[in-house]
Amino acid sequence: MDDMALEAPRSAVAEDIGAEHFDVLVVGAGISGVGAAYHLKTQCPDRSYVVLEAQASFGGTWHSHRFPGIRSDSDLYTFGYRFKPWVAAPIAVAPSILKYMGEVIEENDLGSHIRYGHKVQSAVWSSRDNRWTITAESPDGRQARFTANFLFMCQGYYRHQEGYTPDWPGMDSFRGVIAHPENWPETLDYRDKRVVIIGSGATAATMAPAMAKDAAHVTVLQRSPTYFIAQPNANEFFEQLQPLGLDDMLVHDIVRRKVVVDMDQITRRSFEEPEALSQELLAGVEAFVGPEIVAKHFTPSYRPWRQRIAILPDGDMLQAIRDGSVSMVTDHIDRFVPEGVKLKSGEILEADIIATATGFNLNVLGDIDFVIDGKPLAFHETITYRGMMFTGVPNMAWVFGYLRNSWTLRSELIADFVCRMLNHMSEKGLERVEVALRPADHNMPLGPWIDPENFNGGYIMRSQHLLPQRGDKPEWQHTQDYWREKDDFPAIDLDDEVFRYA
Question: How far is the C-alpha of 98 from the C-alpha of 110, rounded, in Å?
Answer without folding.
Answer: 15
